[in-house]
Design goal:
It is globular, with a radius of gyration of 22 Å. The protein has a seven-stranded mixed β-sheet with strand order 2-8-7-6-5-3-4, sandwiched between helices. Strands 9-10-12 form a three-stranded antiparallel β-sheet. The protein has a two-stranded parallel sheet with strand order 1-11. The longest helix is centred in the C-terminal third of the chain and has 22 residues. It is of the alpha/beta class and 391 residues long. 48% of the residues are buried. Helices cover 41% and strands 13% of the residues.
Length: 391
């Protein structure tokens, strides 16, 4: 195949032409500063307000509950550090999980160095949090619970509604990192009962460098950046107007007919999973088979290294990953795969393929064929594989 086959949509997505089209005027024509009182500036402000309405509608929130940010990691940091600062006189205990994105885990570790206690909940072999474990971890000092909506590596969707209900019963704030879930599965913040939710533009065909944070009305989250009055004075600095407009359009497109799109993507995902399992021995699907993001496929292949897989796939014109793009330079196995009980040697042989509504069955078949050949080639070079065959 001549063209690149892109199967790393969990890492980032291409900006859709429709998104780019609505962004372009705010670079060259409608370039006013939204804080300016003249027409050029007020037009930019109106564009931001319209985008805020679109994000709010996608989540069933109010527009005043949406704050724009620089992305998912910034939103996550804002919540953890902000709530820790706001409630430090009430308690110093935070609960999260062992499989969170590093934007949560590293921020939690930072807070531990500043006097806070953090409980990292275990997950089961599919990556699911047991609500009973959450209940048991709550103490009188617990001020925040932060559990991701869906895992970025193995695609497992957590029982967020039930977990948020437990938090509410104990009068504890609940945050979810929904960066991978927004635009892939329906989300209603009111129905779920979450207090705060993070999302990122570049996962849903908006540009990189823009995201949003939902904060339920009544929560007075401290300022992230001091300075001007932007974002209700909570995040100072001239707004990224074009990026925000792009995010508004992207989330509008992503949530349009979302259930039908999810069904279509899930069918192709299951087709790939079934054929990979049928044609390759000693392979393990990571994550839940049923409670899974529509486009996520994550396998561990015994007797080979994930890095070798990626290099040969790249030579075949296929873009994939072995896990989170934020840790791609690390030689350590995925903390997510270790947390679901995989031994180091198997966790090292992992592959994540993430597809979207534009992925075709022709592309899927090509990837499967290439994967079969690459796994055979890599195993043929492995002494462990030959030892296993001899046995």
């Amino acid at each position: 195949m001549e063209n690149l086959i892109y199967m790393d949509n969990a890492a980032t997505t291409a900006v859709k032409p429709e998104v780019l089209e609505v962004m372009l005027p705010y670079y060259t024509q409608a370039y006013g500063n939204p804080s300016s009182i003249y027409t050029l500036g007020q037009n930019a402000k109106e564009a931001i307000d319209a985008a805020r309405e679109k994000v709010a509608k996608a989540l069933n929130a109010k527009s005043e509950e949406i704050f724009f940010s620089g992305g998912g990691s910034e939103s996550d940091n804002w919540v953890l550090k902000g709530i820790a600062d706001l409630y430090r006189d009430k308690g110093n205990h935070i609960i999260t999980t062992k499989i969170e994105h590093h934007a949560i885990l590293h921020t939690a570790q930072y807070l531990e160095k500043h006097g806070f206690k953090v409980t990292y909940l275990d997950v089961d072999k599919d990556g699911l949090v047991d609500p009973k474990d959450l209940e048991a971890a709550i103490t009188d000092d617990t001020i925040l619970i932060s559990i991701m909506f869906a895992n970025n590596e193995i695609g497992t969707i957590e029982p967020i509604g039930e977990l948020a209900r437990i938090a509410k019963e104990h009068k504890i704030l609940f945050h979810t990192d929904a960066v991978q879930a927004v635009g892939n599965v329906p989300i209603d913040v009111k129905e779920l009962g979450v207090d705060m939710l993070s999302l990122s533009g570049h996962k849903i065909h908006a540009p990189k460098g823009v995201g949003a944070l939902y904060v339920r009305k009544g929560i007075r989250l401290p300022n992230l950046i001091h300075g001007g009055a932007q974002e209700k004075a909570k995040r100072a600095g001239t707004e990224n107007v074009a990026g925000i407009v792009g995010l508004g359009k992207a989330i509008e497109l992503a949530t349009e007919n979302i259930e039908q799109k999810a069904k279509k993507i899930s069918e192709l995902r299951d087709y790939m999973i079934e054929n990979i399992e049928k044609r390759i021995d000693f392979v393990k699907l990571n994550g839940s088979r049923t409670k899974r993001l529509p486009g996520n496929i994550n396998f561990s292949f015994e007797f080979i290294e994930g890095e070798g897989l990626l290099l040969f796939l790249d030579l075949a014109g296929i873009a994939a990953s072995s896990g989170s793009a934020c840790t791609s330079g690390s030689l350590d196995p995925s903390h997510v795969l270790l947390s679901i009980g995989l031994p180091h040697e198997i966790a090292h042989g992992s592959l994540r393929l993430t597809i979207n509504e534009d992925t075709t069955y022709e592309e899927a078949d090509y990837v499967i064929e290439e994967l079969v050949k690459i796994v055979d080639r890599l195993r043929d070079m492995s002494p462990l594989w030959h030892e296993r065959k001899n046995k």
